[in-house]
Amino acid sequence: MRRRFTRSGARGPRPFPRPEQPPGTLGDVTAAPLRSVLAVVLAGGTSRRFGGGDKTAAALGGTTVTGALVASLGALPVVVVGPEAGGGPAAALAAGLAGAEPPDVVVALAGDLPFAGPAVPRLLAALSAAPAEVDAALGVDPGGRRQYLLAAYRAAPLRRALGADPRPDGAAMRSVVARLRVCEVPVTAREALDVDTAADLERARSLWPGERDP
Q: How much is the pTM?
C-alpha cells in the first residue's frame, strides 16, 4: 500500500522532508500484513507550552519533529491529521480514520514524539500475541504513565469507543481507552520523549546523531 502523508482538511498530500540521519526505522517487523495496519499521526494541538509556533513543525534532523516520526515508520501506511480537524486527540483520531480504508489495527501516535517509531514493532507484536479480547496495546513510559498516543488499537473496538461519546469533540483519549481492554508495553524514555517545550526540543536535538540544527 502506498504511504499517505495527508492532513485532514487539507487539499492534498503534503510530504515531509526526509531526515538526514533517522535514529531508527520500523522495518519489516510485524507479522500482520502491512495492508491491515494504519498509523494515524496527530499533529494538531495548541503548542501553548512551546512558546509560539507549531512544535510539530520545529526543525529536527533535516526535517521536522513530525517528519522524523513519520520517517521512522518505514513502509507503514501513514495518515497525518493536522489542526484543520479541530477538537482534541480523540476527535482528530476519528477524523484520521474517517478518510482511510478500514484497517485491522490502528497505531495512534502523537506528532510530537520524534523517536517513537522503534516502539511500534513491540506494540504490534504485543497486540498480535494478546488474546482476541484485548483491544489495545498501550505504551507505558519509565514513570509508569500510559501513553494513549503511543499505542496500537484493534480498529473495530476503537471505532466503537470513539463513537460512544455523544460529543466526540469533547471526548478525551482517557475516556476512550476506559472503554477498551488493554495490555501494557514498556517504552523507553527516548521513545516517549514528547516535544512540548523549547527545552524538550533541545533535548531531542541532543539525542539526534550528528544534529546540526541551530
A: 0.82
